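Priority: low. Protein: Rhomboid family intramembrane serine protease. Input follows.
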Amino acid sequence: MFPIRNTVPTRYPPVITWVLIATNCIAFLFEISLSPYELEQLLYQFALVPARYSEILASDEINPVIDDVLPLFTMMFLHGGWLHLILNMWTLWLFGPTIEDRLGHSRYLAFYLTCGVVASVAHIFFNPVSIVPALGASGAIAGVLGSYMRLFPLARVVVVVPILFIPLFFEVYAFFYVGFWFLMQVLQGMLDLAVTPTRADVAWWAHIGGFVAGFALVPLIVQSERRYRAYYRDEGVLGFDPEGRM
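Result:
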C-alpha cells in the first residue's frame, strides 16, 4: 500500500512542514555535491553511529560534548539516496500538515525534533555496537504517523495497491494503514535482532521509537478545542468531503 492522499482538512498553512522538507532537500543536494571521501567524513560526523555512544557509556566518565549530542538531531536531515529522500518527504508532506495544524507551528517543530531524538536513542539502544551510520527523517516522520493515528484513527487514507502493474485505489482507515505499517516495523526489527544483531542496514527500531513517542506525546500538546475548533476522529461528518462537497 502506498499512500497518495490524506483526507483530513486543515485550516492553516503548514509553514514548518515546508521548512522541514526544504531543509532536507537542501541538505541532500549538499551531500551529493561532495566527493566520496568528503561524504564519508560528513556521515561519520553528523549521522548516527551507535557504537560511538556505547563507548561513551562504557567509559568511567560520561561527559558528552556538542559533537556527541549533535548527531541525534542532524541525522534526521541526511538521506542515503534519492528514493530515500523522496519517500520520506512524500510521507511528511501527506501527514505533516495535519499534525502541524492541530499542534501549532512551534509545538509541531518541537514535537518533530523530539520524536527524531527518541528515534535516535531507540536505534542506539537496540544496535549498540553497530558502526553503520544511521540517517534519515523516517524516525521523526514515524512520530508524525503515530500522532496521526492517535488523533484520527478513523480518518480515511487513500492508498494505491499495484496488482500486476494495474494500480488499484482504496480508502482505508488510518488505524489500519498506520497500524499495518507499524506492525511491519516491529516484525522487521525483531527479525533484524535475531539474524544480524551487530548490524542494522535499516533503522527499524528508530521507526518504532519515533512512532511510540508520537503516539504517546501528541495528546499532551495538541491544541484545545477552544484554541482551534472541535474536530472528529474521522473528520468526515455531515456527509461532506474535505473540499466541502456532498
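The chain is about 60% helix and 10% strand. The domain at 2-221 is CATH 1.20.1540.10 (Rhomboid-like fold).
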